[in-house]
Amino acid sequence: MRAVARGQVLLQASSAGQLLAVLRSQERPVYESSLDALASSEVELLGWTEREPEVVRLIAQGHSNTEIAAELVVSDATVKTHINHIYSKFGARDRSQVIVKARQLGLA
User: Which end of the chain is more exposed for a tag (fewer CB within 10 A), N or C?
Assistant: First the structure.
């Protein structure tokens, strides 16, 4: 529970292995394929900011809030704001639901 409260993602070993296999099998980087998969109508419908698909990608890769902040060169507070907006747009309660929705939309 403490790890989750810190924004870390916990996966069973079998799930983590499957997730890594999928990520490794992709021909293009996840970010490029996610931008191609996210049609402009979906961007308008969800009201995406430029950063939110990037944050979704990093969440799907299992990064913590602190790691996302370092990757995007923003503060932890900014990451939390992006994540809260993503939760709202996806109707999600947690990171797992964000990952599921992102997979459905082809973002992860």
Answer: N
